[in-house]
Write a structure and sequence with these properties.
The complex is a heterodimer of chains A (about 160) and B (about 475). Chain A has about 160 residues and is an alpha+beta fold. Chain A folds into two domains: about 60 residues; about 80 residues, Pleckstrin-homology domain (PH domain)/Phosphotyrosine-binding domain (PTB) (PH-domain like), CATH 2.30.29. Chain A has four helices and seven strands, in the order βααββββαββα. In chain A, strands 1-2-3-4 form a four-stranded antiparallel beta sheet. Chain A is elongated and about 70 Å long. Chain B has about 475 residues and is of the alpha+beta class. In chain B, α1 packs across α3 and α6 packs across α9. Chain B is globular. The two termini of chain B are about 45 Å apart. Classes of the chains: A alpha+beta (about 160), B alpha+beta (about 475). The interface between A and B is medium-sized, with 22 and 29 residues. β4 of chain A pairs antiparallel with β18 of chain B, so a sheet runs across the interface. Chain A: It comes from Tigheibacillus jepli. Chain A: Keywords: Membrane, Transmembrane, Transmembrane helix. Chain A: This is PH domain-containing protein.
Chain lengths: ~160, ~475
């Protein structure tokens, strides 16, 4: 039995996740405010916006504060000579092994938020779907991408 | 001889016309209805304009489309050029071609023609190329030309003699579906649900054209004639739906023949439309053996092949039916004859006993909530009948137990086996080299019970997704070993 993957993704992933989830939370809060206005102007009972707001606050805590921390803590990866080993998930943990031979291509991707923090995502594609390692530093991501590309080519020649 | 540009048979124009009418049917009908309603003094003018439009939008494109459609084989590629205003070029490398699928419908048959669908891995669900109408001999030559070179290339590597000419090869194994088995396949197809859905869909469309008086009238009569009559009607509808489901299956599997020639499988079947599918053995990603819920009591199974190039219009997606109905005990011999190399016997391990709890609880909890809701509502409105909902609980337990009982996994040195049940029991046999990724999935509950879900993916036609198979609640240590193997 092998040990679990040992590499961690970048600390700033936390910030990026919190901002993206924060946007969702802000939208939910705007809806809550709108509900208060509606309840004030129409016969809709006040307890509806109050309960909704409480739920939004709870959700905000879970998705902005709590979940990103756990998600970051759980995310592990390791690129070995013959395989890519991924471990992640909060409620359901997934441990996926991608044999190097099966890698068809590997990309780095970067959205505006990731770019702001100098991060990038490495995306590994096989004929059976693709897998991502989110939020590595640009340097690490490019290095990893090149390394996977070389390893994938080498193992292909062996086959 | 295949390397100069060729046209399809002129009959292709009819199919292109049919296609464009099908696509333009709704605007076409709308325009005609509009014209009919408005046709006053200038009625003839409207009809003239309509006819011109019809020619311009439906007939002309079919003729031009046919004129501009060329295909040929060059440089190890099947090349297709088509398009009226914009010329489309499509070059498909021979070794990328996953399946070639030839079919003959009634119209084709009258002229000795066939349709050829060419599929590669990846891309959308549509076939990469469709030759709507070509002479059957032409189809054979084209197929031979496509397979010849790509097979030769791979044979050089493996130093094995391979099929050169498709049509002159010796047949290594052949199996026909007997008339009796065809009937059994029809009777146990379980497609009645599909038929009822279609009937429902048609009804909801037709409904708006039926005047309300018709309903009222009918309902009055129905209720007047008593409950027996309604029951008879329902039984009759169900019987007709079942009968058409049987007919549908019989039409599709009519004279089903499976042949293995060297390293290639061919299936031919169908009454109205005779479809022929060619599938090289090495393109099979996995085998799927399904015990249909209605077939299992009689010991019958269906064998599917998962191929990365699907069969185009088949609802099963990437699955190709290798044989529609087979005795379970004949499966080992079948595999030996048609897919040599696949294991006929395997060490099958059931899931651990403690998994029963997880299998049962997953079905029991939602069912218990439903039952409780019915009982509570029943207390107010239809006591004591609502209490019968309690019977759902043993049923839920039985379903959960059946899922637990069916779940299993197995290994040989070159294969992995997964077995699971939804309604039908499915056994998937995957060659290890076709496994793309391996995943262990574990929920919090599973973690407490030292259980885990084993998932694997194989290549699929749908780019970027792959096909996923899984068995739930195996022993965690086993799954770890399964995914960590080299």
């Amino acid at each position: 039995m092998r040990s679990q993957p040992k590499d961690r993704i970048h600390q700033d992933a936390l910030k990026v996740w919190r901002i993206t989830e924060g946007i969702v939370a802000i939208i939910a809060m705007l809806v809550a405010i709108a509900l208060f206005v509606i309840a004030g102007l129409t016969p809709m009972p006040m307890w509806i916006p109050i309960i909704f707001t409480m739920l939004v606050l709870l959700m905000t805590y879970v998705i902005v504060v709590w979940a990103p921390r756990i998600r970051w803590y759980r995310w592990r990866y390791e690129v070995r000579e013959n395989e890519i080993d991924l471990l992640h998930g909060i409620w359901w943990t997934h441990r996926t092994l991608v044999p190097m031979v099966k890698v068809q291509h590997v990309d780095t991707e970067q959205g505006p938020l990731l770019r702001r923090y100098g991060l990038a995502t490495v995306k590994v594609t096989t004929a059976g779907g693709s897998h991502e390692i989110p939020a590595l530093s640009m340097e690490d991501a490019e290095h990893l991408r090149d390394r996977i590309a070389v390893l994938a080519r080498v193992t292909e020649d062996d086959e | 001889m295949m390397n100069e540009p060729r046209r399809l048979h002129p009959l292709a124009m009819v199919f292109m016309f049919g296609e464009s009418v099908k696509n333009g049917l709704i605007p076409l009908l709308a325009v005609i209805f509009g014209a009919v309603r408005k046709s006053g003094a200038y009625g003839w003018l409207i009809w003239l304009v309509l006819s011109v439009l019809f020619v311009v939008f439906f007939i002309l494109p079919s003729v031009l489309g046919w004129l501009r459609y060329h295909y040929w084989v060059e440089d190890g590629e099947l090349r297709i050029e088509h398009g009226i205003f914009f010329k489309h070029h499509r070059y498909i490398r021979k070794e990328r071609i996953q399946t070639i699928n030839r079919s003959v419908n009634v119209l084709h048959r009258m002229f000795g023609l066939e349709k050829m669908n060419i599929e590669t891995a990846g891309g959308s669900g549509e076939p990469e190329a469709t030759l709507a109408a070509i002479k059957i001999e032409e189809g054979q030559r084209l197929e031979a030309a496509i397979y010849q070179k790509s097979e030769n290339k791979s044979n050089e590597k493996k130093h094995e003699p391979g099929p050169q000419q498709l049509e002159n090869e010796t047949v290594d194994a052949e199996k026909h579906l007997s008339t009796k088995d065809l009937l059994i396949a029809g009777l146990t197809s379980g497609k009645i649900g599909v038929v009822l859905l279609i009937v429902g869909a048609i009804y909801s469309q037709v409904q708006q054209f039926i005047p309300d008086e018709f309903y009222e009238d009918t309902f009055h009569r129905l209720f007047a004639s008593g409950i027996q009559f309604i029951v008879v009607i329902i039984v009759l509808i169900a019987f007709l739906a079942w009968l058409s489901a049987v007919m549908g299956t019989v039409l599709v599997y009519w004279r089903f023949i499976l042949v293995r020639k060297g390293k290639e499988l061919q299936t031919v079947s169908g009454l109205l439309e005779r479809r022929r599918i060619v599938l090289p053995l090495h393109r099979i990603q996995a085998l799927r053996i399904v015990d249909g819920i209605l077939r299992q009591p009689f010991g019958f199974v269906t064998v599917y092949a998962e191929s990365a190039g699907g069969t185009g219009n088949d609802k099963e997606g990437d699955s190709i039916i290798l044989f529609p109905l087979l005795k379970r005990k004949d499966v080992p011999r079948f595999l030996e004859e048609f897919v040599p190399g696949y294991p006929t016997d395997m060490d099958v391990s059931p899931v651990p006993k403690r998994a029963l709890y997880r299998y049962v609880i997953r079905i029991l909890v939602p069912m218990a909530i439903v039952a409780a809701a019915i009982v509570i509502m029943g207390y107010f409105w239809f006591w004591p009948w609502g209490a019968l909902a309690v019977l759902l609980l043993p049923i839920a337990y039985a379903i959960g137990y059946a899922h637990y009982h069916s779940a299993a996994w197995g290994t040989t040195d070159r294969f992995r086996m997964l077995r699971f049940r939804t309604l039908n029991r499915t056994t998937v046999i995957v060659p290890r080299r076709n496994i793309q990724t391996r995943t262990m999935r574990q929920s919090w509950f599973q973690k407490r019970g030292r259980l885990a879900t084993y998932q694997l993916t194989v290549m699929s036609k749908m780019a970027g997704t792959g096909k996923k198979f899984q068995v739930k609640h195996l022993d965690k240590a086993d799954v770890q070993e399964l995914i960590e193997e080299q």
